[in-house]
Structure formats: structure tokens, C-alpha cells
Amino acid sequence: MKKDRACVENRRNRILEMMQENPRVRVDELAEILGVSLITVRRDLQYLEDRKLLVRTHGGAIAAGNPADEVQMYRRLIARYAARFVSENDTLFINTSRNALKLIEHISCNNVTVITNNGKAITCEHSQGVNVVLTGGELRHPKDAMVGDFALRNLQPIYAKKAFIGCSGISAENGMTTEIFNEVSINEMMIDHATQDVYVLADHTKIGKNSSFVSCPIEKIKYLITDEKAPVEALELIKEKGVQVFQVRQSDF
Length: 253
Description:
By secondary structure, the chain is an alpha/beta fold.
């Protein structure tokens, strides 16, 4: 037993050593180098992230210690927190936001259907209880966003219980905004067709910021999930508009 524990500790230490030379690693590469399964590597990365030694990303991890890493960490915590609002038998809208898409990885309920125009959902890890439906549409790189009339027509007859929407910026003045014009109509429809609740997921770098195109006014947003570093003044103005704000903290996880 002690030998097994020592092997695990040595493997995790080796991951950290490799990240000193290369601060960004991939799960498949680590599995090949270490001679273990993908699941084993993911468990190792989760263990190391829980101890704030790295930040997990889609398909890999990055070393902790700089502002960009911190934002990645908070985005993951926001997605994990948002999963608390998903219930069994829910149908969800998720837009092209990378932050919102991370939510799929943390859903543990059964019989949950996710409808998204994010093409990257194809490779997103999720439990067996989650069903992913792609809207189809014109694929736009580099986000792999599915947009256009085809995507809108496929969304038209669908009404989901909840929408989890990411954005480029959110403020009390302009509401939720994006930098991509072609995504506005999809975001609008997902928000309008959410029969219960709309959750906006936005890390602190997006709070109080305005981007080029408005996806929805602040009055249509019921909940905002952000992190502990969000600017206080901007959050207070958003709360005054009737938005309930949840802030994740490193200490909560």
C-alpha cells in the first residue's frame, strides 16, 4: 500500500516538474509519457488543482501563478458553482462561451439535456446522465460557434428550463454584451426561450465592461455568477437592477 502511495506521489511530482519546463500540458501527452490512463491523469490534475498547484483547462492544465492562470481558475470555479443550479430532468441552453461550456463537465444529475451552439461541446467531458444536442448552423472559427438562420430555425421550437450564458461584458447600463455580432440573435433566443431562469457566467474581468453588441438588457437577467475579485461598485449597480449575484471564492472549494 505504501509502495502504491509512493508511486502516485512520484507521478504527481513528475507532472509538476514537467510543468516547470513547460507551463502548459495536455492530458493525452501526460498519459503517454507517464504510461497511465487518461482517467488517471485527470485525477492527478484534479488533485493538484485542489491544492492550487495548477489550473485545469479543457484537455490539459496550466501552471498556477500569473493573472491569466488566476482567471482560468476562477472560470472553472464559476462553472463548478453553476452546476449546483442544474436539477434532474433539466433542459439547458448553453451558448458559445468557453466559460459556460465548462459547466457540462460538472453536471452530476441524471437525464439532463444540454442544447448548445458551441461546436466544442463534441469533445467536452460529461457524465452519462448528460445528453448534448448541437443546434447545427454555420461553423465560425476559432470559437467553433454555430450561427446563422439554420441554427436559429432549429432553436425556434425549443424552450429549455434554464439558460447558462457567457458574455464578453456585463454592466448595469448596457446589460449583457458580446464582441461577435453573429452570436447576438442566438443569445437572444436562448434567453427568451428559457422558461425558468437565466444565469450569466462572467469572471471579474467582464464585470462592468461593455462590448460592441448587446445580447440582452440587464432587466432580463435574473442571476449572475462571478468571482470574489469582481469590482464592488459595478456589482452594486447590477444588484440595483434586480439581479441576484453569486460570487465564488477559492476558499469555498
